[in-house]
Amino acid sequence: MEDVNVPFVEVHYVTIQKVGDIPIVKGDFQELPPQVQKWVAQMVQLCTPRGVYICDGSDEEAEMVTQKLVERGTLTKLTKYENNYICWTDPRDVARVESKTFIVTDDKYASVPHSREGTNCVLGLWMSPEEMKGQLDDRLPGCMSGRMMYIIPFSMGPIGSPLSKIGVQVTDSNYVLLSMRVMTRVSSEIWKHLKHGEEFVKCLHSMGCPRPVERLVIKHWPCNPEKTLIVHFPDIRKVISYGSGYGGNSLLGKKCFALRIAGRIAYDEGWLAEHMLIMSITNPKGEEKFVAAAFPSACGKTNLAMLTPAIPGYTVRVVGDDIAWMRFDKQTGELRAINPEAGFFGVAPGTNMKTNPNAILTCLKNSIFTNVGETADGGFYWEGLEDETPAGTEITSWTGEKYILGEDKTKKSSHPNARFCCPARQCPIIHDKWEDPAGVPISAIIFGGRRPEGVPLVIESFDWKHGVFLASQLKSETTAAA
Fold first, then answer.
1. 321/302 Cα distance (integer angstroms)
2. Phi, psi of 384 (to 5 degrees)
3. What is the pLDDT of residues 126-166, one digit of tens each?
4. Is residue 369 part of a domain?
5. Cα separation of 480 and 475, whole Å?
6. Are 280 and 395 found together in one domain?
7. Which residue range forms the structural domain that includes residue 451?
8. Of 299, 421, 422, 427, catalytic
9. Which residues is 325 bridged to in the sheet?
10. Are residues 277 and 372 in the same domain?
């Protein structure tokens, strides 16, 4: 029989991992620690995504996610800078929603103080586990249908530090993934620190817009503001966020984990999780002291932490601008603090080269800007940058309206709570010990807030006990951050 020339065909067989019927599109599920596998499998069964993406924190991952967000229209590249992007959200999803933020515990008064019958507590909202179960059962089943579920391993604090804590966030938002990579330490190295069954904080986030989407999506920003709910379970170290993509509600390593859940962990373990900046001040003699300072959101923590001293011979270095985890050193008795975050999530309006030049210099690359304006030449703009932006510049506001700077003083480019999200390592005055696993020694604590009248600008306490008393009496104006 005559030979027949048959083309050579090479056959490859690819095995696709699945969680139940849901495919793993990236990553090896078997490499996850058993306790993480179990929880992720439960979340997949509950949320029914179209696929599971296990994040590793690589540069390639960032490039892929960024490209998808640009293609979708969620992000726009700011061409004036290196790797900077702008995002405009649904106008209904622009800040933390305290009225929809709950603590769930069996004992109500483990979460909120006793108050007179008929009065509303302003220090937090509590809901019973039974009532919250009904709320979540109405929201979570199938909440990620048609969307990718991203598994984000992250460390609050330097990876491996005895002061750090580990979390795993599952989310259907790749904007959240990209922002978490800035604000926390996302890495596949995290799994090694959970291999012996160690505890981790469970963080579930969904935009609340399963596909096919039955609601109007504004500005390529899926959200569900009518059903937004942010829930904390401190007893079991868990956070559930539904319906919002705004950073304070969706980047669960921030306020949700680093303050609310960590506050309970700290109480149980004998340390402190506080809404405080950490900075160092060095006098002309070279004597350095580290200071923590507690102000509410949008009251000046970032500006103080990155202060440029007006007094000759003094220098300031920043360790963190928002959250401090502090505990006493058992050997020395020193109060030592770490910044659990890896980035700055600062209020943009009012920030400029006069009020905070270091913040401006920090966010000139590798940053995400939310609800700020954009100049015609691809730069960022917000109220406070008037002196640094030529009159006549065309601005596109966060609502999409175009106007000429200087022609109409009533036009606003940015939401009052517009934000910049940038890596802390880029700050020109970042302290060389900002990631020291042992933390830095705290010598003083400052408490403050926004008060236009009625109190002196600065008050010094007589001693530490008097300082606690003074701090407990402080009240601040409401800001756009909440």
1. 5
2. 115, -15
3. 999 999 999 999 999 999 999 999 999 999 999 999 999 99
4. yes
5. 16
6. no
7. 273-345+425-472
8. 299
9. 273, 338
10. no
